[in-house]
Amino acid sequence: MTAENTPDKQARSHRIKRLIYRASYTGMKETDLLLGQFAKRYLPNSSDAELDEFQALLDAGDPNIFAWVRGDSQPPANLDGVVLAQIRKFQSEL
């Protein structure tokens, strides 16, 4: 087994693929496009803590995420972190 193909790296790769897929099929077209593109671009280079934060955002539901990104409502403090800030910045650059 090579250093690039360790069980930890394989598990991380599978997790990123699952998160990208989940972000691309949230149920709301607007968030599918935004989160799917964001995930493809940023998740492969994200830390494990950032992946956890992204997963927690997905768990909150796409109507909430969409409202938080647009600024229509304030997210709970535990979700208002680095990843949500990155998504907002990414959305403003589209």
- Specify the helix fraction band: over 70%
| Domain module count | 1
Unreliable residue stretches: none
Given the structure, what is the number of helices? Answer: 5
- What CATH first level would be assigned? Mainly Alpha
Q: Spell out the CATH superfamily.
A: Flavinator of succinate dehydrogenase
How far do the termini sit from each other?
A: 41 Å
Shape: globular
Number of strands: 0
Order of helices and strands: HHHHH
User: What is the fold named in CATH at topology level?
Assistant: DNA polymerase, domain 1
Largest sheet: none
Mean pLDDT equals: 94
Helix/strand/pairing class, anyone?
A: mainly alpha
C-alpha-based Rg, rounded: 14 Å
Report the CATH architecture: Orthogonal Bundle
Beta fraction: under 5%
Task: Tell me what you see in this structure.
This protein is mostly helical and 94 residues long. The N and C termini lie far apart (41 Å). The protein has a single domain (3-93), classed as DNA polymerase, domain 1 (Orthogonal Bundle). It has helices at 7-24, 29-42, 48-60, 62-70, 82-93. Helix 1 (7-24) runs antiparallel to helix 2 (29-42).
